[in-house]
Design brief:
By secondary structure, the chain is an alpha+beta fold. It has 12 helices and 17 strands. Among the domains are: 4-171 and 271-360, no CATH class; 425-474, no CATH class.
Length: 492
């Protein structure tokens, strides 16, 4: 949540601050339990480290409450880069490899989606702060709890001042060739991580699979010229619907007779430096970016100019600054603050939980057996990724063109891949028949109504025009072509 109403001091309708302190609010909604709002300041930027921390912290909360790890975890996340990246995927595979869960289904929302469940919680906060000012960080935190008092959901605010550097932790152990999975047509919206017996095919005991969408069948709309569309809706709108069959990948091959692959080559090495609490770190803290202190100082300067020197609000801010930000480096020094040094100073200044690594007590290296030994581990077998019920709507049955998703993510195990979609053989005949008609008649029928307005150059351009399978023009080669050579592309 990055709107203006997540800045402090917040005066509501009574005024505003030009240099208000920005807060990041990362919401995690656990159905049937409640919502946790992880509040960060400028010392913790939005990114993979914070996302992984939130996921690990939620698993840790489950263990603390129930006394055991969950067997299955279902994660739905926004499609932002802080969630859709190799580090988050590696962390989910890490959870399975440590035997903290038997299966994780990770679903990414598509680009341009409207709202998700957590947005309703953010809406509660937004409405509350429209009319309720709060002038300190503690007041903002208390107001969030008040905003949910009359709601049927329990809300908790958790402050995060330092996070583990998960990117550095996983970086050297992620498949170097992993690519083509998070952007545009190559986007894979669902990943399944399953616990399987350790083997040469799955050395860490985790099988990873992906698919383009969260359903077995979807309809995709392709932008085309209306004259080149086959369907009625396409000819009217220029949006050609295509029924797409969605499969899990990668598939078994002759050289690798099992489905699935893996992202982590081995478990990362644990760091054993002592934290401020006197226990091994296991994951080193993320450093604080240079220049963070400058933004905080600007906020404090405006606060000091606005409130009387003996004001309780000013006294609260001064105390917070001395404990939290006074020892940070300014932008002029252009150096990041070491994460452990910053966490230690926070600890000495009274922040007893200044830094922690969720589930650190259960983390082991590659050469050790997992500490967690759940009952399901005794009967562990290789299983297929869970399938959802197929869509059977009338619209699906009416769409003429069909395609299928392909094995399009690059990895060390599958270095050579296809384009993300492939037309089915059933659709090949339909498309070729339509292309035959268009290529033989389009240049005749299209200009008839305006032939008197066309120049010789226009007529020559029409004569040379070719189209591809999407209905878009394709360039022709050759300097002195006088007659159009019709060729029909092969659909793979």
């Amino acid at each position: 949540m990055d709107q203006k109403h997540s800045r402090v001091p917040h005066l509501g309708s009574q005024g505003s601050f030009q240099k208000a302190l920005h807060q990041g609010i990362t919401g995690v909604l656990v159905h049937g339990v409640g919502v946790t709002l992880y509040r960060t300041l400028e010392t913790v930027p939005k990114g993979p480290d914070l996302t992984i921390f939130c996921i690990m912290a939620e698993v840790e909360k489950f263990v603390s409450k129930h006394g055991h790890f969950p067997e299955e975890i279902y994660v739905q996340a926004d499609g932002g880069s802080e969630n859709a990246n190799k580090y988050v995927l590696a962390s989910l595979e890490y959870i399975i490899s440590q035997r903290w869960a038997k299966k994780i289904l990770f679903s990414r929302l598509p680009a341009g989606h409207t709202h998700e469940d957590i947005d309703a919680c953010f809406g509660v906060i937004w409405k509350w702060f429209r009319s309720n000012p709060c002038e300190t960080l503690d007041a903002y935190k208390a107001n969030i709890s008040k905003a949910f008092e009359n709601r049927r959901i329990h809300a908790t605010v958790f402050d995060v001042l330092v996070v583990p550097d998960y990117q550095s932790f996983f970086k050297d152990f992620i498949d170097k060739k992993l690519s083509r999975y998070a952007k545009e047509g190559n986007t894979q919206h669902q990943w399944c991580f399953s616990a399987v017996p350790k083997s040469p095919y799955f050395p860490l005991g985790c099988k990873t699979q992906y698919r383009a969408f969260c359903s077995n069948k979807v309809i995709e709309f392709h932008v085309k010229d209306r004259l080149n569309c086959i369907s009625t809706i396409g000819s009217l709108t220029g949006l050609e619907p295509m029924k797409t069959l969605v499969h899990w990948y990668p598939l078994a091959t002759a050289s690798r007779p099992v489905d699935g692959f893996y992202i982590l080559n081995q478990l990362p090495n644990l760091r054993m430096e002592l934290s401020p609490h006197g226990i091994p770190l296991k994951v080193y803290p993320r450093s604080v970016n240079a220049g963070v202190k400058d933004g905080i100082t600007e906020t404090l300067t405006e606060i000091r100019n606005k409130y009387p020197i003996n004001s309780d609000i000013l006294r609260t801010w001064n105390d917070w600054y001395e404990r939290t930000a006074a020892h940070l480096d300014s932008r002029n020094q252009q150096t990041a603050v070491d994460g452990l040094q910053y966490a230690t100073k926070l600890f000495l200044n009274g922040y007893r939980n200044s830094y922690r690594v969720p589930l650190a007590a259960y983390m082991v290296d590659s050469d050790m057996e997992p500490i967690c030994q759940p009952i399901w581990l005794q009967n562990l077998v290789d299983t297929e990724a869970a399938e959802h019920d197929p869509l059977t709507s009338r619209i699906l049955n009416e769409v003429e063109i069909e395609s299928v998703t392909t094995q399009s993510v690059v990895s060390s195990i599958v270095p050579f891949v296809q384009e993300p979609r492939r037309l089915l053989g059933e659709a090949e005949e339909v498309v070729n028949r339509k292309d035959l008609f268009i290529m033989s008649s389009h240049t005749h029928y299209s200009p008839l109504g305006q032939v008197g307005k066309l120049t010789l150059k226009d007529l020559q351009a029409l004569l040379h025009k070719r189209i591809n399978l999407t209905g878009d023009p394709t360039p022709t080669t050759g300097a002195n072509i006088k007659f159009k050579t019709v060729s029909y592309p092969t659909i793979c």
